[in-house]
Structures are given as structure tokens and as C-alpha cells.
Design a protein that fits this description.
The structure holds three protein chains of three kinds.
Chain A: H1 2-14, H2 25-59, H3 76-83, H4 85-118, H5 124-130, H6 133-136, H7 139-153, H8 160-183, H9 188-196, H10 201-230, H11 233-238, H12 246-251, H13 260-288
Helix pairs in contact in A: 1-2, 2-13, 3-13, 4-8, 4-10, 8-10, 9-10
Chain B: H1 2-22, E1 25-26, E2 32-33, H2 39-44, H3 47-80, H4 83-94, H5 101-112, H6 117-124, H7 138-162, H8 166-174, H9 179-190, H10 192-208, H11 211-217, H12 224-232, H13 238-265
Antiparallel strand pairs in B: 1-2
Helix pairs in contact in B: 1-13, 3-7, 3-10, 7-10, 7-11, 8-9, 12-13
Chain C: H1 2-17, E1 27-33, H2 39-49, E2 52-58, H3 61-69, E3 77-78, H4 82-90, E4 124-137, H5 148-151, E5 160-162, H6 166-176, H7 186-199, E6 203-206, H8 212-216, E7 222-226, H9 227-236, E8 240-243, E9 251-257, H10 265-275, H11 278-287, H12 295-298, H13 303-307, H14 315-320, H15 330-342
Helix pairs in contact in C: 6-7, 6-15, 7-15
The chains are: A mainly alpha, B mainly alpha, C alpha/beta.
Chain lengths: 289, 266, 344
Amino acid sequence: MIWDNLGCMTIDGDSHGVSNHPRFGWQVTAARLQAGLFGFWTALVFAFLYIPIILLVVFSFNSSRLNIRWEGFSTRWYGELLGNKVLIDAFQNSLLVAFATTILATLLGTVGAWMLHRYKFPYQRALGLLIFIPMVMPEVLMGVSLLVLFVQFLHLPLGFLTLTIAHTTFCFPFVLVGVQARLQGLDPFLEEAAMDLGATPLQAFWKVIVPYLMPAIFSGALMSFTLSLDEYIVSVFTTGAQSQTLPLKVYGMAKVGLNPQLNALSSLFILVTFLFAFGSYFLTNNKKT
Amino acid sequence: MPLLAWLLLFVIAPTAMLVLVSFAERDSLGRIVYDFTIQNYIRAFDWLWLKVLFSSVWYALLTTLICLIAGYPVAFFIGRAPQRWRTLLLMFVMVPFWTSFLIRTYAWITILSKEGFLNSILVSAGIFTQPVEILYTPFAIVLGLVYNFLPFMILPIYTSVEKLDSNLIEAAHDLGAGPLLAFSKVIIPLTRPGIAAGAMLVFVPSIAMFAITSLMGGGTNPTIGEVIFKQFTSGRNQPFGAALGSLLLLIFVLALWITRKYRQED
Amino acid sequence: MKKTITVVLSALAIVLAGCGKAPEAKKLSVFCWSEYIPQSVIDQFTKETGIQVSVENYASNEEMLAKLTAGGGQYDIIQPSEYVVEALIAQNLLHPIDKNKIPNLSNIAPQFLKLSFDPENKFSVPFMAGTVGIVINTELIKDDIKGFADVFKPQNQGKIVVLDDAREITAWALLSLGIPINELSDANLEKVKPVLANWLPLVKVFDSDSPKTALLNGDVAVGVVWGGEGAILLQSNPKFRWVIPAEGTHLFIDSLAIPKTAKNVENAEAFMNFILRPDISQKISDAFPYTNPNLAARKLLTEDQLQNKASFPSDADIAKMQTFRDIGTQGSKIDEIVTSLKAR
């Protein structure tokens, strides 16, 4: 059943005038089959992505401290989590840095990709290669060299600012590469047409190009947020006492067994994200109808 | 130009420092002594480190390939889904990774271990008579890498699929092309930028990634990221770590430069 | 558009607000292993003394060292292991401790004091100690295992977990040859190589953070692990047995020390004294089943805790153990040897 529905959705969802053209029966069937297969495959991949997450949520209700075998139902870890100020503070710090990083990296990546695409300047090709350095550089090298840069050359105190700068540095290439891909094959007349209608280059960029790039910008923002949230090695070198993020608290924990409060925290965060996502989904759809 | 300033300050400056350090020496506490030497590079050109690098690149390639095969249909499906669903589906690809990395990975370890869920299912279903070794094998490494990098393949491809003109696909169909032909001749070439971007975003970071490799592979396959990390920390040899890192950067940038040049001449 | 700008600005404002906190008189900045000092202990210290504690975490000695030597932060207390204490003393990076301010030092068992890395305890006090030993899953291994030589035998191929720590592994090989664990000359490293070449291919898992996982999951049958890991395994299931290697083993001593750059030395000393108080030390033992060097605190522990052989080896066993000395630049070479034997 699901198979069928998913199949219909892909074909009918976005295509216009399926019935306007004469088609051979086998072609329609084959197209449907292909869409159905893709839907089925997508379902499988989602199952793959969520298998460990289901386990993680289940174990947040486990009464045993060791995250390995099921020993009975308990909400103990949720209770303890609420009283664990250190963990909650660290999580807040993580979120704060991840949001700030996402905004900065997305801006930097989008504008950077547009500049590289739109304008010609010397050493452009070299610049295009430099973008990849933060991606390929092992985290420990990046962490230590940024630490030295911040402390000995820029004299910045380690804290939220340095941490956000460091995170932005390894996140923005992800945005930039994604936006670059979207820009390839962009109709150059799009910007020209806008300018002909009296828009300044900035207006044209903001009103025409940005909306066109939106899916790539959104993907880039998602990637930045995720990367920043989970970063350990770069963080350990570039953060201060006031900005200890969750991974810093978690990494030493394995020594005594990962605290199931972390499962509880992760489960709650996923729950909140789901509620938020579905909530905004229904809100926007209600507005439209 | 903000990009240029950022690059100069936080990318080029640290890289320059790294290269500088790679020609330096260190004292017994691991502090850098600025003294010109190429000893670190002589040591770096050893078959051992090359082997480690090859193995890291091999795993990264394999990961990229599997992510592409597994991720493309998902990206296509999401990109062709009704507009209002797309954002939601895209979010759902990413949400599993908003959990703690270690918690997620230990969940996989629990699933794949000898007395874990997968083995108990396989044995009780009669597929195997006794538990098989899944965890701490190359298979587990690749599984872990694919799991963690899959979204970075799906998202860029999605952005390419999303802008496909459905009329174009229609036209291909109308010309009598079957779905397979339409797919390989029209859709794949049109989404090539997305594929290239996705491949970069998976391949490049997975070369130096080592947390997954050591946790799920049992640490028996040293990777270049791990080697550099250990030389930097327990080896207390930052200059040598920096030399290995600089070489990695150099090889990578050269490879990228050559492919780009080649592609332009094409 | 306006909304976006507001969001950006407010985010930046929050970010910037986090940076510049006004200095307080009663402050203490602690740089320690994550989770190693329980939060309840820190909270109690603040409650009793009014000193605000800010905590920064790391997950390995070397991360701490790298950050400290780069001038990363102003720390009043750090938590180095014994060989790092020695290195820091040698580089004149530690502040001497006024022992008059730390009367509770008398609670520490003499076998953990005045050791070679800090002969007069001028710069460090022991926080927690521990050993490296062998854990056997007696359901899977029936042989009598007495030491390293019995673990690394061909019949145990693919059944072994060891710490992913080149220095540790090399130390075991040295012990099996009867060489003291700190004599890491190039000549001795050459002698160690063939031993490691036989040992390492037998190993299934290298893991320093949580070697207990592979043992608990049944993926391996025997492990050479930290005492604290062993203690957790012994607690969890009677099938696990703990053996102190016959060849001798490594006794590690995680210490507390004050960096030279510390600003609140008196607060740091007060913190040290507080940590060495029996009731506080007991709390740490409850959270971490390592070897508590605090004799007064041991009196407060339960019989179960004291009976755990992985936590508390006998004095006779401890007498045979060795602590790590600083080995300076040899670390890089040891890492290379172990890496090369792994990557075959």
C-alpha cells in the first residue's frame, strides 16, 4: 500500500499534464514502478537512519546504568537529567554555538559562493581550492593552530566567540560547496532581467538569487548545525570555561560508562524537534488552504 | 569581501602556521622549537604512512560510492515529493544526527555485537547457526562511515534534483525514452553538480575521520587522521604531525587542482 | 529581511555577552578530566567556601598539555597523570604547594607519596590511583592466565581487547622481557619490537575509553584494561575474573597540581585540601571505582567496594608495580612502532 501511495506521489506531485501527451502503457507502468522503487528505497534508508535512534530512545528508559542490556523500565534518567545543571548548561551552550555558527556559516558560504560564481578576480581558482582546506585538515591540526592564532596573535579570550569562529571555519565550506552546485547552470539572464527592471545588484541578489538558492541554503544550514552540534576535537582547543559544550562533557564519560541521562537528553531533543517540525508543517499548510 | 577576510584570517593563517611548524622541532614537553629542519618530511616519506594514507583514502572512496548509491534515490524521491513535504523530509534525514555522536555509535555497537540484536535476529531466523562477527570488521567501519556521512550526500543531490524541470523529464519520456534511459541520459547528467558536491562533502571529511573507524573497527586499522592525532597528542610531536598534515593537504589540493584543470580542458 | 537582521544581531549579542564576565574575588578555575570530579563535590566546595568554580574538561593528558603550553587559559588546578607531573616540573610550569595549607595530605597512604615523579610532593597531591590488569571472561576462557605472556597466545587470537595506548602496550612488552617500564632507550625498543609483532596481530579491539564494552558484549574474552574498567566488570557479572599480571604492571597516579600561571593559588590549595577530606574522597570513590589512595576515606567505603580486587590490589601487589616517568621525545617513536605493527 505504502509502495503504491509513494509511487503516485512522486509522479503526480510535481509533474504537470501527465495525461496531455500520448504515452505507451508500459512506459507509464515502468515510470510508476521506478517511482515506487525509489519510495521503497527511501523508506529503507530512513529505517537505516533511525535504527540506532530507536535503540537510543529505548535505552533512555533502561534501569541499568550500562548502556548494553535491557534490565527493566525506568524513568530515573529523565528525573536525574532535569536535576543535572551541568549537562543542561552544556547542551544550551552547544545549541547557542550551533545556531550562531549556522547563521555565520550560511551567510559566509552563500555570499562566498555567489562571489566566486558571479565575479572574476585574480587567483579565483586558487581561492576555490582554499575553500576545501578546512574540510580536509584533520581536526586536531585545525584546533591547535586556531588555538595558537587566537591566544598568541589575536589575543582573544577563549570562549563563545572563539568557539563560534572555529566552528564557522569548518562549517562554511559545506554551505559553499552546496550553493555552488546549485548555482551551476543558473540562467545568467535571471540576474540581468532583475537589473533591467531597475534592481540594484544587491536587490537582484536578495530578491532573485537568494530565493532560487533557498533549497541549497537550507541544506547548508542543516549541515552546519549538525556539524557544529557534534564537534569535539576542534572545540576542546578553542573553547573556554564559560562555553563548555555537550561533546566536551560526553567524551570523557565513556570511561565510566556513558550516562543514560545522555540518552534521555537526546530523546527529548528529538521529540522536541519532531513536534516543532510537524507543528510548523501543519501551521504553514493550514495557512495555505 | 567577507569570504576573503575569513579565509585569510582563519584558513590561510592557520595553514601557514601549520606549514611553518612542520619544519620546526620540539622540546621534551612537545613545545615547538623554531629551528629549520626537513627531518619531519624525511620521516613522513615512509612506506608506513603512505600505507595508512592509502587505506584511509580507500575507505573514504568506498564510503562515497555507497553513500551515492544509497543516497541518490532518497534525494531524488525527496526532491520530487510535493513541495510542502520536502523540508520536512529533509529535516528527518538530519535529525538522527542531532543526538550525541558517542551515544549513537555505542547504539550501533550494541546492535552489531556478537550478543547484539542483529545477531540474535540472524540466528533465531535460522540464517546463521551461531553469531557471526560483524562488529570490529571492515564491514562495520564502512557501515559506520556510511551512516554518519549519508546526509551529506543526500542534501546536495536534493538541491540539484529540486530544480529539475519536470517538463524536461516529460519530454524525455515523450520522445520514447523509458524511465531507465530518461534517468541515465537526462536526469543523472542534469544533477551532476549535486552529485559532485555530495561526493566532495562525503569523501573529503571522511579521509581524516577516525572516531568511527576506531570505535567500530576496533582500532586495528590506523587511519591518517588517527596517526596525526596521536603524533600531536600522545606522541607529543606536533612538528611531525604538522608535516603529515601538510602533506595530506598538499596531495589533496594537487589532486583537486589537476581534476579541475582536466575537467576544464574537457 | 528585518527579522533576519534582528535574529543575527541578537545571536551575536548573546555570543559576545558570553565572553566578558567580570572577575570575581572568590574564584577557582579547574581544568580536569570530564566527569572525574563529580559535580556534587564541586557544588559542595562552593557551598562551604563561597568560591565560585569554573570547570573546563579534557579527555587526555596531552589535550591538557597542548592547551596549557599554548597559553590557552588561566587555570588554577589541573589534573595530570604522574608522568605529566614530572614533565611539567622539569619545564618549571608548576607552582610549589604550601603543604601547611593541606593538612589532609596525611590521609594519603605512604605508598602513593614521594614517588619518583615528584619526590617530595612539592608540586602535586594524589587524586586517584589505579592499575592496569587482566580481565578474563571465565565462561569463554578456561586456561589459567597469570600474566601478559598467557594473554598473548595464538589460541587467544581475535579474543583480546587492549588499551589503545602505545605507551601502555610497550610497557607490557618491556615487563614481559624483564625490563623496567621506563627504560625506553632505542636499544630496548628494538628488543620490544619482535614481542609486539607477535602480540598485536592477536588483538581484536584497541580501546582506551571503554574496553569494558567489548568484554560485556561478548565480542572478546580477555582484556588488558584499567583497574576501574575491571572493577565495573567485576561488579556487573561474576563470570569476570581480575588478574594482576605476574610480570608486574603499571600503577598510575592521577594528581592535582597548580600551574605556574594560576591566579588563585590559595583557593587552589583549599580545593586540594577539600578533595583529600575523607568524606569527599569517598564520594569520588563511589563515582569512580579506582584505587583510592586516601586511607581515611577507605574506612568509609563499603565492604563490597574494598573487596573489589580491581579497585584495591593488595599492598604486596602494589609494591611490585611501577609508575611512568616522563619519556620526553620517545613518545613519538613508540607511537610509530605500534602504528606500524597494527597497519599490516
